[in-house]
Amino acid sequence: MTELGFALLALLAVGGSVAFVVRPLTRRRGSPGLLWEARNGVVAEEKASLLEALRQLEFDFQLGSLSAEDYHQLEAGLRRRALAALQAEDLQLEELDGAIEQAVEAERARRRRSPGTPERPSGGPVCPRCGWPTMGTERFCPSCGLALARRQPGGRQAMPTARQTVSVHVAPAGRRTASAQRATEEAVSSRTLAPWLWAAAGVAVLLVLGVVWVVMRAPSRAAQAPIATVQASHSHTVAFSPRREELVFLGTHNGLLASIDGGRTWGPQPLAGDVMAITHHPQRPLEVYVTGHNVFARSEDGGRTWGPFSGDLPGLDIHAFAWSPEEPDRAYAFAVGFGLYRSDDAGAHWERLSEQMPEDATGLAAGRNGYAALYLSTLSQGVLASEDGRSWRPANGFLNGALPTLRVMAVAFDPNSGETYTSSGGQTYSGTLYAGTDRGLFKSVDAAGSWSRLSLETDVAALAVHPADSRVLLVVDSRGRVFRSEDRGLTWPGD
Length: 495
Known about the structure:
- A hairpin with a 7-residue loop joins strand 4 and strand 5.
- The two termini are about 25 Å apart.
- The protein has helices spanning about 1-25, 35-65, 70-115, 180-215, and strands at about 230, 235-240, 250, 255-260, 265-270, 275-280, 290-295, 295-300, 305-310, 320-325, 330-335, 340-345, 350-355, 360-365, 375-380, 385, 395, 410-415, 420, 430, 430-435, 440-445, 450-455, 460-465, 475, 480-485.
- Helix 1 packs antiparallel against helix 2 (about 35-65), helix 1 (about 1-25) packs antiparallel against helix 4 and helix 2 runs antiparallel to helix 3 (about 70-115).
- By secondary structure, it is an alpha+beta fold.
């Protein structure tokens, strides 16, 4: 939705600028000068306030201060205000046109009735456009301003010059047709059109420059830079330590790596194998669990030493592993060839929940009870959701809230994000779900009902949310580049 906010800002600015410049050209009558300028200034202020409101709304939504439903409602309200402003502008212009026409007619009538106006001879020459009697010596008609042919000595008339236009329609003396009135108004308009065009062009340029400044000041999607590059083959999973703020573990095809400075430098750990998942016990942060291809190990000292651990699982090819955020000793494990298992005693004993699971699963995240409790990322079906682990449904969103790809490499749920969403049926969701895809990073606040794109655009291989600070996200892409955000994915500035 980030592109939508910037696109809407640009559309409003360019549309307003074009309308501002084109409007004087399309009007049928002359501009009313300062009165039109004053009223148009009110409309311009309204447009500027709408642009600022839309920019602030988009910024708040990206910061996570607004739910998706509130964001869409507020955005719809601003659009309605913009439409009402444009309609009010058209109505004001129509009223001003009518007032101008009445003022012009009143001035002409006053001139005809003025006692100081010299009498015009009857039966003499008349203006070929409006029929106003002339003396025969004027260069221009005193009524409509038309260039007249001057009478030469001897009774002949001089031919109009190339810049003079004489209408072939002659109205009866003293009468003015509707076409003559329009011609008069056009003549008046032509005298004031050029200054207004210059003023309109200047305001349009200022509007465009203002929008460019706002967009440049807003967080740029292209402003992303890695903080490091890991020299390892196939990164699969990354996890923050809940005990040490800057301790991070990375699972690769060739074993386990660790960083003690938040992902900027990495070193090998004494654990070999193809690591697919790294998790910490929710209540015992020193307990670290690592699973993968024929890998299931546990550390009870924060990752210094490791030992084997599997309970009574039928196999050790564990592609996905997750702990429940609400049940401390409840764990879920996906064993390739056997299905999804659940343990309620911290992994000592396991119960199979579902045998029919996609073999290309890449990650597992446990949400809150009461709605989708489990989310599974896959390479061919996108994100799948389940309330009980036994039946699964697609959770890739729909319409403009859908994921643009079904190749999802990682999924993570943050129960402490503070983001909430209330559905139309009154059900309230809390927490944020993230999905790393080959098209970038996405998030959902409505239990995977809809997805919004974050600013990081890369082929995501692994992602993690800091358990103690929801603002901190870490992503490793398919090329080993490490990206870090400290504002919930709004920016990825690098070092």
